[in-house]
Specification:
The protein is of the alpha+beta class. The chain folds into two domains: 7-109 and 142-250, outer membrane lipoprotein receptor (LolB), chain A; 263-502, C8orf32 fold. 20% of the residues lie in helices and 46% in strands. It has eleven helices and 27 strands. The protein has helices at residues 7-18, 24-27, 146-156, 245-248, 257-260, 317-321, 346-355, 362-376, 389-395, 400-413, 480-492; strands spanning 34-45, 48-60, 63-76, 79-92, 97-106, 109-118, 121-128, 131-138, 143-144, 163-168, 179-193, 196-209, 212-220, 226-233, 236-243, 255-256, 263-266, 275-282, 298-302, 307-313, 379-380, 397-398, 418-430, 433-447, 450-454, 467-473, 494-502. The strands form three sheets. The protein has a 16-stranded mixed sheet that branches. Strands 17, 18, 19, 20, 23, 24, 25, 26 and 27 form a nine-stranded mixed sheet that branches. A hairpin with a 2-residue loop joins strand 12 and strand 13 (212-220). Helix 8 runs antiparallel to helix 10. The radius of gyration is 23 Å and the shape is globular.
Amino acid sequence: MRSKANSSNLLIAAVLALQFSLSAEDLKHAPPKGRFHESWMELRMLGKKTGHSRVTVQRSGEFVISRTQTMIKINRSGSELSIAAKEEAKETLDGQMVGFTRELNMGGTPLRIEGVIEDKSIRVTTEQFGRKKERTHDLDERGLMNWGLLRLMRVEGFSSGTTYDAWIYSPEFGMEAPTKVTVKVLGEEELLLPIGKRYATRISMLLHSKAGKLESQSWLDEDGFALQARMKLGGIQMEMKRTSKASALESFAPADLFSHSLLPLHGSVPKNARAVTYRMKMKSDSEVGLSPPNGYTQTVETSSEGFMIVKVKRSDLDEVTEGKGNPTEVASRYRKPNVMIDSNDPSIRKLAKFAARGAGNPISMAKQLRVFVTNYINRKTLEIGFATASEVARTRSGDCTEHAVLLAALGRSKGLPARVAAGLVYLPEHNGSKNLMGFHMWTQFYLRGKWVDFDAALGESECSPTRITLTTASLSDVSLAEIGFALAEAMEHLEIKIVEIER
C-alpha cells in the first residue's frame, strides 16, 4: 500500500502556471530581453516546511523560457522519499509551444521527458535509466504551456467574477492531448507572508483531467506574480508561499503523508471472510464524483439517498475456470505495451518466459506470474517513485504500484490481457490506530470472460474481500499520477463502514 507523493507536483504545476505574468501593456510589446522574473517559494504540508521551489523566466532571442526547480521531502510510513524536479518550457513570444523538458527524480528513480513540436505533431521522448521510448501525438493548437497561458490570463483580465476556460499541455497529465482548465477570479485579499504583508488577487484553477477534477488556488500581486498557492488533496493541505532565497534554502523536514491519507473504517474484516458489504458515501459538501466499477468480485448499488452499497466477494479461480471468454475480445490497450507497462522490453520478455514455464493454461500462468512477482521484488520499499515495469525488473524494488505494473507487463508479454486496479485496502492496524482503509494498487487479468484480481504486493491470487476497486486503467490513456490525484481527492470526502460480513 502506498500514499503517492505526486499530489505535490500538481501544486507545483499550478504555481508555475501563475508564477510569472506581465501587465496588459507588456502584452502589446515583446517581453524585455534577459531574465525578467525570479522568485523563491517554500512548500508546506501538514504545518511543516517540506521543500522549496525556484522559478525563473527569461527572454532569449525570439523565445520565452521558463524554468522551475523544486525539492520536496516526505515521510511514507517511516521511509523518507526525496523528490527533485526540474522543468523547462520554451515558447514563442506570442505564446506558441516550441518544446519542453521535465526531469523528475523520486527516491533515486530518475525520469526525463522531452517534447519537441514538429509540424503539427508533438514528439515526446521518455528516458529512464538509459532506456528511451518515443511517441508522437497530434498537436492541438489550443494547447498552451506557461507563457501562453499567462498571456491568455492577462487578456481575460483579473476583474472579480471573470471566468474562462483554457487548455494546457502538461507532462504530468500526458501529452496526448491538452487538459482543460477553468480559471476564475475570486477577488482581492490581504496575505501575511514570510516576506511581509501583501495584497493579492485570488484565482482558482480547476483542472479537468481524464481521472477527475483537481482544484488549486493562487494569490497574485499587483504585477501578476504569484505570492501564494494552495491545494487540499486527500485531506492534506499543501501550500506554497513567496519567501526569500535564504529562507527557502533553509533546512526542512519530511511530512508524514502516509498516515494522514488513511481512512477510518467502522468495523473490522476477519481473515476468513468470504464476502464483505461496505457502505460508502461522499460527504455532503463534496463535489467529487465516485463511481466504483462492477466486476467479477465486486457489485455496486447506488441508493436514492446518495450512498453506495459495495459488495466484495473472495475470488475463486475454480469458478473462473468454468467461464468463457477470449483475450481477443478485450480492447488492444489492455494487450499492448505502453510507457509504464513496457511488456515488449527484452528484460520483461525474458522474465515472463522464465516465470510462466510449465503453465498449462492461462489461469495457472496467472497464478505463477503472481507468485513470481511477489518473490522477485525482494526489496519491499516505499522509497521508490513511479517506475516502469522494465525498471522494476532491473531493481527488484518497490511497493504496490511497482508490483502491479510488473505483474501486468509479464502477463501482457505472455498474451494475458492486463490492467491495474486502484482503490482501497483494509489495514487492521497502523501506528496504534485500528481498522483503516488506505490507497492500494494491484493487477487484474482477463481470464475466461472475467477481470480477476491478483495482488502481488500482498501475495494473493484468490484475493480476499479486503480491497475495494475504485478505478481501473490500462495506463495507456491515463497516468499513475492522475489516478493518484483522483483517488486522493475522493478519499478526502469519503465515509465508509461495514454493513455485513459473510464467513
